[in-house]
Amino acid sequence: MRIGHGYDVHRLTENRKLVLGGVEIPYSKGLLGHSDADVLSHAIADSLLGAAALGDIGQLFPDTDPRYEGVDSLVLLKKTVLAVREAGWRIGNIDATVVAQAPKLKPFIPSMRENLANACGVDVSQVSVKATTEEGLGFTGGGEGIAAHAVCLLLSAG
Ligand code: MG
């Protein structure tokens, strides 16, 4: 088995949708990025790539590539899972934490888990999503951005 870690940050800005785990969340701001800037899906994809030692999503899906402009990050996650599968791995479990001062994410977590599990081709029981604030401290606490951490376990498919 192999463990993987992923971390991502995107800046909060006006006139953007807030998408986390493929769920569009009603909020006055959204995350800035070349794709839909779904920081949670990005952290999870990076954890999977990390566990398989396949690089990172910046390498797989460069932000200079017009094909990925505004792309649904669940599509990128699906492609990532395919690459990980081709390398001989299957997903054991994923555990992720979103760090955001606002909005309150708890009501959206079941839908995020469902979307992420579907994109990864696993059962929802294998995908954990948590949310926390940083007590008003730092860039997440000040509402400048949202961060996400993820770890995963890959099992040999052979
Ligand atoms: Mg990102």
Q: What would the average pLDDT be, to the nearest integer?
A: 97
Distance between the termini: 11 Å
Sketch the major β-sheet.
Answer: 5 strands, mixed
Which structural category fits the helices and strands? Answer: alpha+beta
Parts with pLDDT < 50 across at least 5 consecutive residues: none
Binned, the helix content reads 25-40%
Major sheet: order of its strands?
4-1-7-5-6
From the alpha carbons, calculate the radius of gyration and give it in angstroms: 15 Å
The rough form would be described as globular
What is the H/E string?
EEEEHHHEHEHE
Cofactors, ions, other ligands: magnesium ion
Write a structural description.
This protein has 158 residues and is an alpha+beta fold. Helices cover 30% and strands 31% of the residues. Helix 1 (39-51) runs parallel beside helix 3 (73-86) and helix 3 crosses helix 4. The longest helix has 14 residues, at 73-86. The chain is globular, with a radius of gyration of 15 Å. The structure holds magnesium ion (MG). The site of magnesium ion (MG) has 5 residues, from strand 1 and helix 1. Residues 8, 10, 33, 39, 42 line the site of magnesium ion (MG).
Give a quick set of tags describing it:
158 residues, alpha+beta, 5-stranded mixed sheet, two-stranded antiparallel ribbon, 5 helices, binds magnesium ion
In short:
The chain is α+β, with helices and mostly antiparallel strands and 158 residues long. 30% of the residues lie in helices and 31% in strands.
